[in-house]
Amino acid sequence: MEAQKDLTLKGNIVISVGLFEHSGDNEVWEQMDEGTLTKTKEMLDDMHKRKIDMSDEIFVINVGGYIGESTKSEIEYAKKHNKKVNYLEKCDCE
Hints:
Strand 1 (57-60), helix 4 and strand 2 form a beta-alpha-beta unit. This protein is mainly α. The protein starts with a helix and ends in a 7-residue tail after the last strand. Helices cover 49% and strands 9% of the residues. It contains four helices and two strands. The protein is globular, with a radius of gyration of 14 Å.
């Protein structure tokens, strides 16, 4: 949320994720059975790619250098579609 506020105050239109798998929203994930969880994650992955389609660039919040598998997939998708990729912390991802 801090990065979102900072980017907004710098004049950017921010399209953010709606749920945070690794850093919150546990109450959402804990109540799902395996099948629902899988379908929900697939839906969210697709939704994130649609958000990338609408964006000029993406900003990866890689606290401590961590980038999960879903985020790696979204970075590759963004690059494939000629979107600029920026990171919160220095990344040797390129």
